[in-house]
């Protein structure tokens, strides 16, 4: 794609999300969502083949439906409160519809079906933008309306997402689908604590974005989209296998890596609010996620996976530029000792 | 406490910056020095703890375990030299780094005051152990072993996290120094029963309790020698240590909640000892013997009398040294024949007489021969369980007999009789191996002269 056009489109995506995050008028928020959606379609379709066309179409249809549901909720809110300012939502029906619309945008169960298929159909870099940047806008709206969200619906969606994210990823060998199911599960964790302490949602979002960025950067570096091709990295760059190990263990939520911090804080917040069975269930379901991450580490880092002799003598092309990989690795694995710093967030 | 933790952390740059011919020398020497520093902790002036700061403390229970941990690192390094000799330099350094990382986490776990910090470090010890087992193990079953190890422990410990956080919400602080003075009885309710279960299951899985022990034979057998040593000697004791600490908070539910686990342990120790008589795999035999000894510790901790605590602490230290020594002996067999089958290498006394002496001593301490500290531990546990209920003497007596049976079976099969003809060309014992066995045995024999230091905080 022409670099100038690509930059313009990327800036439009950024602008759309910024408009969503910074507006106080519901119409502007909807406009921001639509701008974001329209601009990201060409990015999803960077490679022009039927697979990406199908993925972009699925993405467009689900996101457009969600925007329309959001618009309906906004209008019902307008009818009942007479104003367009984004504060709490004044009508329970509007709140439910809005929560469902935003869940559809995020990919929470039962609206999660588009995430694996869309992520699989697009290139790794587009998948990266889809799973990290695109989550910011809906999450910021959920943050702002969090006082008026129906607790039952949100918690049900959250727990079901953790379940689906865990079980759905078990049978996958395609890395993009694994990252998609991981995204569904993490979104579940984030929305579970939204009603109790939205700051922790933002913390989880931050750490999740860092870890997903790191994972995608590592995948892009080794140009691998399946478990099999990832298992060949020990032939070319053994260091990447160690980094994949650390980042995957961090995503699984193992102490002492920083992926444990959001889980710990969320469990703490939920137990402070007297729900004990729920965080226990959530924590145990997260072990399903850990299982397929461990399977990935087994094929990549912890064994020298059997490969044909051709793989051992691959062409050494010019290394792709991976932006900011060392700081990302450090942040996605070593942040746990900084947990006491979170007290400044009060 | 930093005088132990910081040198251990600095062992990592030491490994990475050493020259190729100096890595083993440097790391072994400096880790021996660090273990000498930790010996000063054994001077516990009173029954209260030595509080180094708000975050680290050591009391008569954790000091011997700490000394055992630091003593074991040079031994692990010595034991691993042979099987890593053919690996590239970077992989050797990675292995030593994993061992050092594990050591750091273990030291911090045994001295942590804040129970959540204890939990995080308890979980953190899983990661280097998993990497050691799956990356440097020798058979394909090691992958399954790593998964079983990781998931059994995690399933048990996630409820512990939730339980610790809810206790913190109830009582305001989880600092152990406060809790030991501030204990109130837990009111009797269903949720407190689940709280008891949540707190104890993590340590039950780690010990392991008889019904949840499936991970242990797999992990011990598939791990390389350093992994087996640290698993048997220290990681199992983490479970015992955790139980000893957390039962102070869990009265009075323990009086009735402990029954199922007591039954499982009492029955399990007989079962696992009996299975040892039918094992063909040498490491598997030692692994099941570990389960049996740890079942005694579980019984002791759940009975909660002063003598049983003394027995539990002494048994943990004694079993740590003995089990680690048995694994080293089994490994010396494995390095020569590349097989763990017991009957494949028989009659070793004829070929390696000095090693036979070490085999004899190790088997004798395993069956708790007087006056070794193994006997002191087992005897105190048997006596206190007899006072708890007279019938347990039958099971305990049967267990001691069967333990003697399989220890002697192992000794006689490997050492006595005519040697198998295909092993008459094995290499003689290295000085390194003899030094290793001596370093295991000397603390065991010396401690029998003054067992007061390992008898824990109820002495």
From TrEMBL, chain A:
- Catalyzed reaction equations: a ubiquinone + NADH + 5 H(+)(in) = a ubiquinol + NAD(+) + 4 H(+)(out)
Give the EC number(s) under which this enzyme is classified: 7.1.1.2
Any idea where the NADH dehydrogenase subunit 2 C-terminal domain is?
Answer: 290-342
Where does this polypeptide localize? Answer: Mitochondrion inner membrane
Transmembrane stretches, by residue range?
26-45, 57-76, 96-115, 151-171, 202-221, 233-254, 274-294, 322-345
Topology relative to the lipid bilayer, per the entry, is: Multi-pass membrane protein
InterPro entries attached here?
Answer: Complex_I_Subunit_2 (IPR050175), NADH_DH_su2_C (IPR010933), NADH_UbQ_OxRdtase_chain2 (IPR003917), ND/Mrp_TM (IPR001750)
Q: Which domain of life is it from?
A: Eukaryota
Query: Which Gene Ontology terms describe the biological processes this protein takes part in?
Result: mitochondrial electron transport, NADH to ubiquinone
Domain annotation NADH:quinone oxidoreductase/Mrp antiporter transmembrane: ranges = 23-285
Q: Name one GO cellular component term.
A: mitochondrial inner membrane
Keyword terms of this UniProt record:
Electron transport, Membrane, Mitochondrion, Mitochondrion inner membrane, NAD, Respiratory chain, Translocase, Transmembrane, Transmembrane helix, Transport, Ubiquinone
Q: What molecular functions are annotated in GO for this chain?
A: NADH dehydrogenase (ubiquinone) activity
The primary site where this protein sits is mitochondrion
Is the keyword Lipid metabolism in the record?
A: no
| Family statement drawn from the similarity comment of this UniProt entry | Belongs to the complex I subunit 2 family.
PANTHER family assigned to the protein according to its UniProt record, in alphabetical order: NADH-UBIQUINONE OXIDOREDUCTASE CHAIN 2
Give the protein's function. Answer: Core subunit of the mitochondrial membrane respiratory chain NADH dehydrogenase (Complex I) which catalyzes electron transfer from NADH through the respiratory chain, using ubiquinone as an electron acceptor. Essential for the catalytic activity and assembly of complex I.
Q: How does it assemble?
A: Core subunit of respiratory chain NADH dehydrogenase (Complex I) which is composed of 45 different subunits. Interacts with TMEM242.
The identity of this protein, by name, is NADH-ubiquinone oxidoreductase chain 2
What organism, scientifically named, is this protein from? Equus caballus (Horse)
The gene is: ND2
TrEMBL record, chain B:
Q: Which GO terms describe its biological process?
A: ATP synthesis coupled electron transport; electron transport coupled proton transport
Keywords, comma-separated and alphabetical: Electron transport, Membrane, Mitochondrion, NAD, Respiratory chain, Translocase, Transmembrane, Transmembrane helix, Transport, Ubiquinone
EC numbers, comma separated? 7.1.1.2
- Ranges for domain NADH:ubiquinone oxidoreductase chain 4 N-terminal come to 1-109
Q: Where is the NADH:quinone oxidoreductase/Mrp antiporter transmembrane domain?
A: 112-397
TM stretches of this protein: 21-41, 61-80, 92-110, 116-133, 145-167, 193-216, 223-244, 256-277, 284-303, 309-330, 351-369, 389-412
A GO molecular function annotation here is:
NADH dehydrogenase (ubiquinone) activity
Where in the cell is the protein located? Mitochondrion membrane
The keyword Coiled coil appears for this protein: no
PANTHER family according to UniProt: NADH-UBIQUINONE OXIDOREDUCTASE CHAIN 4 (PTHR43507)
Give the family per the record: Belongs to the complex I subunit 4 family.
Q: What is this protein called?
A: NADH-ubiquinone oxidoreductase chain 4
């Amino acid at each position: 794609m022409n670099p100038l056009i690509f930059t313009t489109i990327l800036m439009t995506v950024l602008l759309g999300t910024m408009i969503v995050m910074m507006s106080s008028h519901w119409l502007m928020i909807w406009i921001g969502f639509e701008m974001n959606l329209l601009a990201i379609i060409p990015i999803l379709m960077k490679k022009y083949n039927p697979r990406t066309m199908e993925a972009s179409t699925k993405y467009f249809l689900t996101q457009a439906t969600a925007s329309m549901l959001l618009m309906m909720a906004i209008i019902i809110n307008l009818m009942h409160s007479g104003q367009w300012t984004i504060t709490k939502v004044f009508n329970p029906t509007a709140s439910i519809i809005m929560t469902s619309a935003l869940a559809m945008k995020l990919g929470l169960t039962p609206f999660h079906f588009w995430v694996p298929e869309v992520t699989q159909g697009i290139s790794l870099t587009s998948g990266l933008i889809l799973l990290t940047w695109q989550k910011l806008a809906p999450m910021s709206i959920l943050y702002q309306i969090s006082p008026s969200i129906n607790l039952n619906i949100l918690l049900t969606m959250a727990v079901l997402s953790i379940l689906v994210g865990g079980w759905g990823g078990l049978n996958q060998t395609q890395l993009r689908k694994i990252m998609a199911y991981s995204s569904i599960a993490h979104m579940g964790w984030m929305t579970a604590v939204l009603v109790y302490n939205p700051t922790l949602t933002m913390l989880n979002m931050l750490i999740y974005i860092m870890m997903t960025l790191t994972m995608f950067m590592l995948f892009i570096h080794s140009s691998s989209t399946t478990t099999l091709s990832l298992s060949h990295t020990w032939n070319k760059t053994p260091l990447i296998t160690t980094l994949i190990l650390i980042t995957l263990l961090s995503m699984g939520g193992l102490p002492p890596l920083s992926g444990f911090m959001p889980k710990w804080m969320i469990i703490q917040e939920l137990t402070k609010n007297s729900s004990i069975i729920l965080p226990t269930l959530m924590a145990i379901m997260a072990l399903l996620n850990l299982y397929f991450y461990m399977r990935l580490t087994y094929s990549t880092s912890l064994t020298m996976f059997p490969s044909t002799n051709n793989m051992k003598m691959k062409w050494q092309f010019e290394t792709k530029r991976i932006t900011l990989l060392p700081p990302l690795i450090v942040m996605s694995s070593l942040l746990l000792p900084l947990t006491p710093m979170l007290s400044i967030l009060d | 406490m930093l005088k132990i933790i910081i040198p251990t952390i600095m062992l990592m740059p030491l490994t990475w910056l050493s020259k190729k011919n100096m890595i083993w020398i440097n790391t072994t020497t400096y880790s021996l020095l660090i273990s000498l520093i930790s010996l000063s902790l054994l001077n516990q002036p009173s029954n209260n703890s030595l509080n180094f700061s708000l975050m680290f403390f050591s009391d008569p229970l954790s000091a011997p375990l700490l000394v055992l941990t630091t003593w074991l690192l040079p031994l692990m390094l010595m034991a691993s030299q042979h099987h890593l000799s053919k690996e590239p330099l970077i992989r050797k350094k990675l292995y030593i780094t994993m061992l050092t990382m594990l050591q750091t986490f273990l030291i911090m776990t045994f001295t942590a005051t804040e129970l959540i910090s204890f939990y995080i470090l308890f979980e953190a010890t899983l990661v280097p152990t998993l990497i050691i087992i799956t990356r440097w193990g020798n058979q394909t079953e090691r992958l399954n072993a790593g998964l079983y190890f990781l998931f059994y422990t995690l399933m048990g410990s996630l409820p512990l996290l939730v339980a610790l956080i809810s206790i913190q919400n109830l009582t305001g602080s989880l600092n152990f120094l406060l809790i030991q003075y501030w204990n109130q009885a837990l009111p009797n309710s269903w949720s407190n029963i689940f709280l008891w279960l949540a707190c104890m299951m993590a340590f039950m899985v780690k010990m392991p309790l008889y019904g949840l022990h499936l991970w242990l034979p797999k992990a011990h057998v598939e791990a390389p020698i350093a992994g087996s040593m640290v698993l048997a000697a220290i990681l199992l004791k983490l479970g015992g240590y955790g139980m000893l600490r957390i039962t102070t908070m869990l009265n009075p539910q323990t009086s009735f909640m402990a029954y199922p686990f007591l039954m499982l342990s009492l029955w399990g120790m007989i079962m696992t000892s009996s299975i040892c008589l039918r094992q063909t795999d040498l490491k598997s035999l030692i692994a099941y013997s570990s389960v049996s000894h740890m079942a005694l510790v579980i019984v002791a901790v759940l009975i909660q009398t002063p003598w049983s605590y003394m027995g539990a602490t002494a048994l943990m230290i004694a079993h740590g040294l003995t089990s680690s020594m048995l694994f080293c002996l089994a490994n010396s067999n494995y390095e020569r024949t590349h097989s763990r089958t017991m009957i494949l290498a028989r009659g070793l006394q004829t070929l390696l007489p000095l090693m036979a002496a070490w085999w004899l001593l190790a088997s004798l301490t395993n069956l708790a021969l007087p006056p070794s500290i193994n006997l002191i531990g087992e005897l105190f546990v048997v006596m206190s369980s007899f006072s708890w209920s007279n019938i347990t003497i039958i099971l305990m007596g049967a267990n001691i007999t069967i333990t003697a049976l399989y220890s002697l079976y192992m000794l006689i099969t490997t050492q006595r009789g005519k040697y198998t003809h295909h092993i008459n060309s094995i290499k003689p014992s290295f000085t390194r191996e003899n030094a290793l066995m001596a370093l295991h045995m000397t603390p065991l024999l010396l401690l029998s002269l003054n067992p007061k230091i390992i008898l824990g905080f109820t002495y």
